[in-house]
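Consider this:
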Amino acid sequence: MPTAIAPRHIDINLARLHQLGMVTQEGGRTTVAEDFRTIKRPLLRNARGDGDVPAIRHGNLIVVTSAVPGEGKTYCAVNLAMSIAMEMDITVLLVDADVARPSVLKVLGLPPEPGLMDILLRDKTSLADVILKTNVPTLSILPAGRANKHATELLASRSMSRLLTEIAERYADRIVIFDSPPLLMTTEASVLASQMGQVLLVVESERTTQHAVKEALRHIEQCPNVNLVYNKSTAFPGSEYYGYYD
């Protein structure tokens, strides 16, 4: 008789994240924490509905992406997940979907683990097998998993579509944050974004060209709910994040 596999548990070094200037539950009202409170609020309204305004379809699936590498999308995805995990009645699943260059566990100071690729490559690996529980009670992580030369193609596969549907419908009360590949690096990134309820496009201040932003937006023009975060701005001293555009 098959036995259930207990979820794996990992400890995130929250003191280390705080020293790096990232959002943590015990980090207080830092500038970054306040910025992500502003960023998350409309995303949560879309995901859960607000008064007479219903929730949007798959609004609990939020992909964080960028035009090109190096704009800070993983940093934003982790901070957004940590910020939403502070809500009283919400759980968060952070998915590393940048399978060619996974960075979520690296940012968190954790070693590689099985994850998304293992589900897509092996029928016997289930979502429950590879989700990592953390010492933040409301935050779980789905790592990218083992490297595979067909990783980007797998993101556009039917298996991925089925997995996204399962996550959206089975965990309707959970917010799922996906750290996606950059939009101008792979066509699969736009395919992944098209299956999300909401898209958060990270734009690096004084580095990302207007042409790159317009081209990235063209790749996700079929997505009805796209928001831009202007990252690494020096408009205000001490703030790495400034600007939220719906």
